[in-house]
Amino acid sequence: MATVRKLIVEVVEARNLLPIDGNGTASPYVQIDFYGQRKRTRTKIRDLNPTWNELLEFNVGKPSEVFGDILEVDIYHDRNHGQTRKNNFLGRIRLNSTQFVRKGEEALMYFPLEKKNIFYWVRGDIGLKIYFVDEVVPPPTPPPQPPAEEVKPELPSPPPVDSLAPPENEPKPPSEANGNEESAAPPPEPTASADAQKPNEEPPADAKGASNLAPEAAPPTENVAPPPTDNVAPDQMEKRTEVSESEPPQPSEKNEDQTDQPPLIECKQPYPQIGMMATSTPKSPESAPEPIKMTMGRERFTALDPTESMKIEPPSFELVEKMHYLFVRVVKARSLPTNGNPVVKILASSHHVRSKPARKTDNLFVWNQTFAFGHDAPDSSSLLEVTVWDPPANSDKHGHGTFLGWVGFDVTEIPLRDPPDSPLATQWYRLEGAGPHNGDLMLATWVGTQADEAFPEACNINSQAKVYQSPKLWYLRATVLDAQDILPLKASKESSFQVRAQLGLQVSKTKLSVSRNGTLSWNEDLMFVAAEPSNDHLVFTLENRQPKATVTIGVVRIPLTAIERRVDDRPISSTWFSFEDPDKEKRMYKGRVQLRLCFDGGYHVMDEATHVCSDYRPTARQLWKPPIGKVELGIISCKNLTPMKTVISGKGSTDAYCVAKYGSKWVRTRTVFDSLDPKWNEQYTWQVYDPCTVLTIGVFDSWAVHGMEEGSKESTRPDLCIGKVRVRLSTLQISKVYRNKYPLLVLYNSGMKQMGEVEIAIRFARAVPTLDVVHVYSQPLLPLMHHIKPLGMDQQDILRNTTVKIVAAHLSRSEPPLRREVVFYMLDADTHAFSMRKLRVNWFRIANMIAGLIDIARWINDTRLWKNPTSTILVHALFVMLVWFPDLIVPTLAFYVFVIGGWNYRFRARDSLPHFDTQISLVDTVDRDELDEEFDTVPCNRPNEVVRARYDKLRIIGARVQRALGDIATQGERAQALVTWRDPRASGIFVGLCFVVAMILYMVPSKMVAMAFGFYYFRHPLFRNRMPSPALNFFRRLPSLGDRII
């Protein structure tokens, strides 16, 4: 049935509005405009925090140049209630329709009110729920038949256009539904009173033009009586007469099953659809190749089942090389001497494929499948053979059955097609070689590229490319407050209770609470990860911890569909739930618990590490910002891959495919079987919302071709990782194409190994002005909820591991599946595992970070020691200038940073993008035992001697860290001892010296003091003592707490 889309705006409340009536209050109402429709709420008299809870419904029309897709919400003061100024405006908001969601995903959101211009003064915010809903339109009642005397069959004429317009809630015909899919009811008839039409009764703009339907959308006019003209205005009658006179008569439809003459198809597209030819025609350069005749053997075919495919977003293929494919589209057959379900087998370039069994409809056998074969291979054959077989009833997919005929083509005569050429017309071909009863096969064959629209859905000799989508994930916050009426098993003693919450395989527990009177208190937050669709239950179990065992007191089961969603930190009301007996057969009251439950849509559910994350958007779609551009990735080829497995013949083989991940969109290229230099030349596109994100590309070896049979040993083997590449989008220049080769590096417990290299092309295209991109850099990286209610580091790690498992389980259920080990490798699920190598790498990273500061300190010391007298004199002059003109300090530092940045700009990377650095990663110098420890599992499964040696090494490193931490603590405690009088004489000296310094600075200008200190610090070594300074000696003598440690 037809549906009509509605926009529902639930006006909940407003807060902290501006008083405007002169008495410190206001009487507000809300007025909403959308697609030319205006509706308003009731007036709340003298209320600065009004609550409406009203639902306003709007019709959603087609895109219009007059009415935009902006929802405008205005709050006004009602002048009928209280005195007011001339201005009664209280605030407004403007929302784009891209922020609206479907019903079921809505959440209460508070929007701060905005001004119309700078001369208005507003304050407060408004709470709304906005969502789309599709209403089913009931079928219309048939109109009453006109009297027989009004029908004039001898003078048929086209009916008026208005008479053909469907009434309210009637589904549109297909030609009209494409343009006016969201049309509303026609406008009401005009009345005598102009004030009778209220603002909330205005229809959308496209509904007002529903009467002016296109003439070609009308049905045939035979035996159609004109509608009654009662209650029709004269001007409308004149309009109907004009349209009826200009409307041409409609031709009758042609039967689709006729084969003597091709059907007439009206061309409404830039490239017309070519009609199917009903009979064999002579060969022409514009139609199809002529079939050739030759004798062929039937035992040369091996059947392969085609796989399902997913439609891929059609890219422009500008970043990759063109690859030619031989396409064969098999549509249907007729007059076959069989009552079964025949199959088609195709032999091209030594590759054999087999279609799915045909379905029989009206004496026709229908396949409607397209096949693609590589046409650039050196072993490409010059013959294309298409055969039809009737498999036995109890045969498997490898059985041959009865031969029904064949068609052959010379590949050199097959036409070449490049988009935007029109699709090649299918044609009937006579099957030969099956005796006197020959049937006909309708097919089309052509040579095209991967840009052909048939390529994504074509059954390739390799597996098909696929696009996957990660599930929509939410953080579920469950706050366990308290419980009442809990009866302990032993009333004479105190009992310890805890609540155990479980969602699927996720389990969390509260701390223990002790009570005597049956009242317990926890007030703890438990966090879970939930995926849509949410059909599970959140189960709370009250447990009594006893010395011998844990006893279950009661259970509460809450469906996830009943839990409220929020997008900010607004408080959620708590609810009491009754515990039930764990035994489902008993219905006994076991107490009650107070819970506060909500889905937090303001967080970003992390499935990647923060420093390599590809998306930072929150879960709630209402909080998404518009994209700033798109990134295009071309996966070209791999070179010199290492054989990953050994086939039955003993030959090394690799069946490589690529996986790319950005945001929630995953793509997988087709698998190139048995090739160490595979070529894909596939291109994909992602929307970019934040430039400071990372695109990940991984290369894997598939076992699918060797494990097609269910239960085989190869079908359970994991796909092997060949390597991966990360590209940070912020390092890309706008609209520049980067085409580079990257080495595929994999770290094993035996060392690093290069598995080959992958060639990719990437381009980042900006879709917004430059200032918008600059503005993104000033925004927080994570959504606001991560800063308002931050999650702990341990909690983030637990939730991330859970998220990775949920995503892996979801993608493994696809067809073809994206395996668990592939998802774990792409998401770096084991990033936080302990590694001595990574510990050393981070130490050197810190050393490199402070190396610049160390160089500055060394340069200052050399200047102080007069190693370069010219430089020291210049520093003295600069110091005098900065002391006497302190306003130049900040501009001088800024200009110095500018000069350094401009100098380094000359040495920037121009072509190649940064990749994994083996020198920074220390993979070339790492010890073999440290690598073995890095790849060891938890708990450890190595021999005791190895574990003891690693433990001793860890103790040595721990002793060094302990000494360094002790030295840092000592220096801090000495600084505290200056004024804590732990050493009375030292504190007295320091306090007295501070008094003297303060008196001197009160009397002497600060510039003179700074000048004297600078010249004293940079004095010549002839006036310098080689002993440490008295201040440093004094500080080192201060006491610390180190002497009190046992």
Automatic annotation (TrEMBL):
InterPro entries: C2_dom, C2B_MCTP_PRT_plant, C2C_MCTP_PRT_plant, C2D_MCTP_PRT_plant, MCTP_C, QUIRKY-like. Residues 1-110, 306-429, 457-577, 612-742 form the C2 domain. Residues 141-267 are annotated as: Disordered. GO terms for cellular component: membrane. Keywords: Calcium, Membrane, Repeat, Transmembrane, Transmembrane helix. The chain crosses the membrane at residues 873-898, 989-1018. It is found in: Membrane. It is a multi-pass membrane protein. Pfam families: C2, PRT_C. Residues 175-184 have a biased composition (Low complexity). Belongs to the MCTP family. This is C2 domain-containing protein.
